[in-house]
Write a structure and sequence with these properties.
This protein is mainly alpha-helical. It has one domain (about 25-230). The chain is about 75% helix and about 0% strand. The protein has 11 helices and no strands. The radius of gyration is 18 Å and the shape is globular.
């Protein structure tokens, strides 16, 4: 079996998000979990968010890649734009978009599993950690972190290619006319955020170190896995 294609990732996301039939009370709980998780992520990276060099990239990761934003409209756009993206962008850039979708699939699977484990109870750090541990799949959790790094490295490589940004700008008007502005905004937001950093090594190392530390602490049964997390991997 070959690697999963971009369209297969999009199909998996549509299935996970209840295309056709949705249990709205359950998805309300998933949305609440995503909001809670976004707050946790914001509390984990205040140092990066406070630096002008990294602030836009933190917002991009929190909103688009790691914070559980509802991306159904973006995904619908991408399904239509995939052939154009594949034709106009280098192969590695196309793979980066596909990797971002795989990251989205994993995040959605975990968010839904946690929401099921927590149920109708209020989300607290203790319940979140218990649900996280009960969900298991440690190897996939670590893969989620690795995918984050892979996507970030791909974006960092993209901003170093002189023709990619003009290509994205060239797509802006056709995307708007075709009703595909959500995907266009996603691509430009990622490109702009990483362009501002002028090198993403510290940013990606910091996120990988802190998220890996949290995973290891939770699966080791650490009673306070969030303690001091914002200082993990604080090296330049």
């Amino acid at each position: 079996m070959g690697p999963t294609t971009m369209h297969e990732h999009l199909d998996n996301l549509a299935r996970l998000r209840g295309a056709g039939t949705r249990d709205e009370p359950f998805f309300d709980r998933v949305r609440s979990l995503k909001l809670w998780q976004r707050g946790r992520l914001a509390r984990t990276y205040p140092d990066l968010a406070a630096e002008p060099r990294y602030a836009a990239a933190v917002a991009f990761f929190l909103d688009e890649l790691y914070g559980g934003k509802d991306s159904a409209l973006r995904d619908a756009d991408l399904r239509k734009m995939a052939p154009t993206i594949k034709r106009l962008l280098p192969a590695f850039a196309y793979r980066t978009v596909s990797d971002a979708l795989e990251l989205d699939v994993l995040a959605e699977e975990f968010d839904q599993a946690l929401a099921r484990n927590i149920g109708d109870k209020a989300i607290t750090p203790e319940r979140y950690v218990a649900a996280f541990a009960a969900t298991g799949r440690k190897a996939d959790r670590l893969r989620q972190v690795q995918l984050m790094r892979t996507v970030g490295e791909g974006l960092d490589r993209m901003v170093q290619q002189p023709l990619i940004y003009p290509t994205l700008r060239m797509l802006r008007k056709p995307a708007r006319l075709a009703g595909l502005e959500h995907m266009q905004q996603f691509l430009e937001a990622g490109f702009t955020a990483f362009r501002k950093m002028k090198g993403a090594v510290h940013f990606l190392d910091t996120i990988a170190a802190r998220e890996t530390a949290l995973i290891e602490r939770i699966f080791a049964g650490n009673p306070a896995p969030f303690a001091g997390l914002a200082n993990v991997g604080d090296v330049h």
